[in-house]
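seq:
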Amino acid sequence: MSETTLFPMPEPTESRPVVLPEGQPRVQWADRSQMEFRIVDLDSLVPGDHRVRGIWAFVEGLDLRALYAEIRAVEGGVGRSPIDPKILLALWLYATTEGIGSARALDELCRSHAAYQWICGGVGVNYHTLSDFRTAHETVLSDLLTQSVAVLMSQGVVELKRVAQDGMRVRASAGAASFRRERALTECLEEAKAQVECLRRELEEDPGATSRREQAARQRAARERQARIEEALRQMPEVAAKKKAEERSEARVSTTDADARVMKMPDGGYRPAFNVELAADTATQVIVGVDVTNTGSDQGQMSPMVQQIQERYGRCPEEMLVDGGFAKQEDIEKAEQMGTTVYAPVQRPKTADRDPHLPLPGDSEAIAAWRVRMGTAEAKEIYKERASTAECVNAQCRNRGLTQFLVRGLRKVKCVALLYALAHNCLRVGALQELIS
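struct:
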């Protein structure tokens, strides 16, 4: 039986083999040497909700008249116009939030990263200018911290009701091998002076021996080394005085950074470091006080912080939360005299049968009240806020790269610490605004 179809089917044909064209395949290949002209504005390179815009808005809200007052170039006068301080400050604040601590790395990002190019707005920067700006304005940076927190206080966001303080040991730029005893430092100083004199004679005898730039660099390096060794010798008596009488001859100071001290680090090791003290409002985690010392212990650091807060904002915090390392009786008494209630754990007694929260016969009124207070359930509940505030703030600074200072000297180190505090508060302002809205 034949099959019928609705439409006639075509006759079957033989399949023909596929013939491939001869020669190499023709494709559109990449030519990265060709020139292109693109019309694009810097503002379109950064999304509207990018973090860098919030940082720029934060900087624009600050009073930077102290920085502008240092500029000598004026309208109608001579001289090259310097870079706007707002640009330099915004660059460092944004770089700090991104964990960038090197001036050279920041210089490179200003040429290759859209966010940093957006801040520059076509203004050229170099790492020398960036490095100098970061460490040359300690007083201004401190005033900006006060100013930014004062604005939040005027808005009722920060009340200074409860402040938590904690110290953080940060690795110094100096190496452990740079520490020398007094005798070795004296020998190094003689060598440094001889090197400076040798370079001076070489320049006088044969001015064309090397290029002027190389000569200047070598002389500058020799003078700086001599100055660092002289500073190390100057600080030697202070370092030796803190040791026991039989150990004073073993006192050592770094020839790289005379301000650095060997401290016990969080991992249990001992390395050159600085102690960064941060005080933060527990309700908002806004940093309200910053200090940097080269003392490895936190004892004696609480009352200076309370005094600093009083000088910055005109009043002391109502309550101060610190760990056991700060619980020095003299500090507790000073804080109480300034009107600040201290919450710090009471040291365990040597005898197990004695209640640590009962006053001792020789206790002052403030110390006795502190002992009794820390035994109450209310004080224990309040003290829980210390870890969630101070340690959280320290951890965030660590995550943003505050693990080792790349600058040397206590003054420069404090400038970097203030930049971290400003960058932290800038991000907290953005977060608090989102919560309020």
